[in-house]
Amino acid sequence: MSPSDLTYILMGLAGYQLSNRLLHYIVKHYNPSFYATLEKDRSSKLAPYFVFPLGILFTLVSAPICLYAYGNTPRESDIFGVQRPFTTKGKVCLASRGILWVSELPLLAFSPEYVTHHVLSLASLLLVLVRSMPRRPIYLIYAGLITELFSDNVALLRLHGRHAGSSLTFRRAMLANVVGMVLLRILPIVFFTAGMKKTSPDYMGGIVMYCVYLLRLSFLQLKILDSSRATWVREL
């Protein structure tokens, strides 16, 4: 990592903190009653609330860049154990996700699920870099994180008191997230991996864990949607 790369990463981390403070100021200034409600639970409401709109902004920028990096990385040289320079788009793709996860960790400390997810995500990124693994798979995975537009909206709706049993918008966003996880995250990396000429045990282990995690999350959310549908049917 060059000094200029480190400088940009530090600027990104600082930019996240400034953006977070700006959102706090805006909400506190223009909607003080809602901000006061969030302040009643600083760890599980106030701190994480602003994570999700910032996550949406980061995702809108990073996902297209990661898709571009995937499409413009030559597959012939993208193999195990080969040291190769990063393209600018590749650097932005990986750095933006790393900056986001590092910045979010202390803000989401109330949730073991989020903490585990972020730690494993950072560990997998580090593994790819240290082991000189192919980069196209991780670019593809990070491009698929466009589905976080749905999951972040679900989280925001939940913090506003909405849930699957009371909000059609909530159910639609959650269903879109489930469909997106299957079509844009699980299937692309499964088909990509199936077409690889060479893999490694740690790579395959990481992909299996990734897919199992997403399948588990999908089934849990489908269960929530199914139970809420049953509740609505009974009420009708």
List keywords for this structure.
single chain, 236 residues, mainly alpha, membrane, TLC domain-containing protein, transmembrane helix, transmembrane
Would you list the SSEs in sequence order as H and E?
HHHHHHHHHH
Q: Span from first to last CA?
A: 61 Å
Structural class: mainly alpha
CA radius of gyration: 19 Å
Global geometry:
globular
Number of strands: 0
**Tally of individual domains:** 1
- % residues in beta strands: under 5%
Transmembrane segments: 47-70, 174-195, 207-225
Protein name: TLC domain-containing protein
Organism: Colletotrichum chrysophilum
Keywords: Membrane, Transmembrane, Transmembrane helix
Write a structural description.
The chain has 10 helices and no strands. It has 236 residues and is mainly alpha-helical. It has one domain. Helix 4 crosses helix 7. The radius of gyration is 19 Å and the shape is globular. The model has no long low-confidence stretch (mean pLDDT 92).
What would you say about this model in short?
The protein is mainly alpha-helical. The chain is built from ten helices and no strands. The longest helix has 35 residues, at 201-235.
Layout of SSEs?
Layout (H helix, E strand, L loop, with lengths): L2 H28 L1 H8 L2 H8 L1 H21 L16 H17 L7 H19 L5 H8 L4 H12 L8 H27 L6 H35 L1
Helix pairs in contact: 1-2, 1-5, 2-3, 4-5, 4-7, 4-8, 5-6, 7-9, 8-9, 9-10
